[in-house]
Structure formats: C-alpha cells, structure tokens
Amino acid sequence: MDTLSEIDTHPNPSFSVPPTPPNTMETTPSPQSLPIIDISPFLDPSSPPSTCQQTAIATNRACIDYGFFYLTGHGIPISKLDQVISLARQFFALPVAEKNKIKRHDAGGPEGGDGARGYQAMGENITLGRRDVQEAVDLYREWDHSEKGVAAGGEGTYKTLQGPNLWPEQPEELKEVYLDYIDQLMKVGEAIVRAMGVALNLGKPVEGADKNTEDEEVFVRNTNKSFWVMRMIGYPKLETPLVEGGDVTEFSCGEHTDYGCVTLLLADPTPGALQVLLKTGKWLNADPIPGAFVVNIGEMIERWTNGLWKSTRHRVIHRGDGYRVSVPFFYEPNFKALVKPLRKCVERTGGEMVHEGNTYGDHLLGKVFNNFYSEVID
Ligand SMILES: O=C(O)CCC(=O)C(=O)O
Ligand SMILES: [Fe+2]
C-alpha cells in the first residue's frame, strides 16, 4: 500500500506550527495511513540512480506532508525484530529488584549514575510536567569520542551522559542481540539520512568536503559517529476511566517531538497506541505494519532544513489489551555536530534562519535535564 499518490495534490507546506488540539480522544477515521518508503535502493550501492531518485522524491513528500512514514526494505529480518521486542518484554516482566540493579541515578552521585543511562521505574519519565505511565531502559552510544571530565563527586562518579551503559543482566542474551541490532540500525539510519540529503536536492558530494560542507552528504558526515539512543519502553494499560468527550488526562507518553535526527520505532502489534498529529489538527493512529519501522524526523532535521521539514508531534495512549512494548532507536547527529540551518533551505523558506545553531550535544544535555530534573505539575 502506498498512499503517496493520494497526497500529491496537497498544497505547499505552511511554515506555521499547527494549533495544538485539545487533549481529546478524537482521532482521524481510518483508512488514512502514513506513506510507505522503501529504503532498499540506498542500502544497495549497485542500485540505479533512478530508483534512488524515486525513494528520494517519496521521502521529500512524506517529510513535508507528515514528518512520519513507514520504512520497508531495510533488510533486518522479522525474526530479529521479534526477538528484540520479546527480550524487552522479558526484562520488564522481571521483579522490580532485578530491574533496579540497573537503575538510572543522577549524574555526579555516589551511585555512579550519569543522569541518563539505565532503568527508569514507572512514572519517572516526565513529559510536559506530567508523569508518563511507562517504565523504560535508556542506552546510548558509549562516551568514546572525547576526554571524560571528572565529576564533582570524584573517582567513580560521572558527568551527565559520560557513564557506561547499564545493560540488563537478565535476559542473558539481551546485550549481544541488541548490540548486533544496533549495528544493523546504524546502517539503516545512514541510508535514511543519505536519502534525505538527495531528497533535499543539496547537490552532489563535493571533493575534499568537511563536516561544514552543505552538499547531499552533509547529514551522513554529521552522523558518522551518531550519538544514538536506544530505548526499551514498557507500557501498562491506562486504567483511569474515560469520560465521554472529556479531556485525556493520563498519557503513556505525553505529546512531544523527538529531539534528534531520525527515529526508527519498533513496536509490538498493539493497535491504537501511537498517535501522530496531522496538519489538519487531527490525530492519526500509526499502527504497526509487520516488518516495517515507523520513522519520524526529529528537531535536528527540522532545524537543518530551516523548518521545511517539521518534527511532528506525537503521543502514546495505550488503552488496548495487554502490556505494550516498544523499542525506538534514535539515530542522532554526532555529539559535536554543529546543527544550523542549511543555506539552501534558508533560501527556500523565505531567507530567515529559524535558529542560529548549536551542537547536538548541547541540545541533548538540555533535553536530559528537562526529562529527569523537571518539576511535576500535580
Ligand atoms: O512507544 C511509542 O510508540 C513511541 C515512543 C516515543 O514517541 C518516544 O519514545 O519518543
Ligand atoms: Fe517520540
């Protein structure tokens, strides 16, 4: 199924932020669905340019119209995807004491936490001042790209994000399977940002290019040491009674945009949980398609493109059956990548820069503080 033909007639993107609709359960009726992008031409160096071009055109359309799409042709077998979900599910089913062996602790403290990596119990993650009804484990690229600073607590304490990953001890095979999966995802992430550079028509790679060269490989060069994040999330079913026509007051994951480059979401088959905000102001259920990822662009791509492509708001409301598990992988810029609007995109969007630019690392640190150190509105 490919819905691109249906949306080709959409008017040009508006550069205004869509109004935030009230937190009601109103979603857009089926059968509208996100477009499907086959990334295989960008994973196979022998693909003819015409097939790459088709993928690039479809990517541009999807990023303008939705900021979200389903990704096929990535080459990761379904058996591997099932294993990744199943291992996360097994972890969340363990006793709390076992899960707390890899608990996230604040940076700089005597427990050796780095404020970001590790297990977060139910309600620890905060979005828009509300506690999300979820538990999660966060893994990041190891801090391997520059000197580690000494945290205030001295030896054995870590600055924010600079500690080692805290891998679950149970299930035993989780670490090995996930490391292999991350290697595979890095290749897929690279293929997506390569397609995006072509989709934006940034021009053929320039000889002797460096990280600041704004040709079609600019995203590839600035993600070649991607400071990726892998998140295993467990969502119990929301239990608060729903009032007919009333506001939604409890979220599995509150409304947000992703803060990085591209997100590759793998989720179990539970329908009706992930919702994407359309330009019309309606919510669309982005139900899983077996074997496909749900991909969305993050704030760094929005900034690079000067708002030509928007980072779309989304949320999770899980009122279906069972305990939902998802494992998003965030393919991010390098920690030190300077992310500022590309000149060509600035020209195409009226000449004014939406941001003066800063490093992805600085942007990320701001988000980590927001997630875990912010106040909860009771
Ligand atoms: O679990 C999901 O479906 C989406 C989670 C999400 O949006 C996120 O972690 O950023
Ligand atoms: Fe998200």
**What is the CATH third-level topology name?**
Jelly Rolls
The sequence of SSEs as H and E is HEHEHHEEEEHHEEEEEEHEEEHEH
Give the helix tally: 9
CATH architectural designation: Sandwich
Q: How many DSSP E strands?
A: 16
Query: Unreliable segments (pLDDT under 50, ≥5 consecutive)?
Result: 1-21
| Average predicted local confidence, pLDDT | 90
Q: Percent range for helical residues?
A: 25-40%
Bound molecule kinds, no repeats? 2-oxoglutaric acid, fe (ii) ion
The secondary-structure class comes to alpha+beta
Distance between the termini: 44 Å
Strand content: 15-25%
Spatial order of the strands forming the largest sheet: 1-2-12-9-14-7-6-3
CATH class: Mainly Beta
Oligomer: single chain
Q: What is the CATH homologous superfamily assignment?
A: B-lactam Antibiotic, Isopenicillin N Synthase, Chain
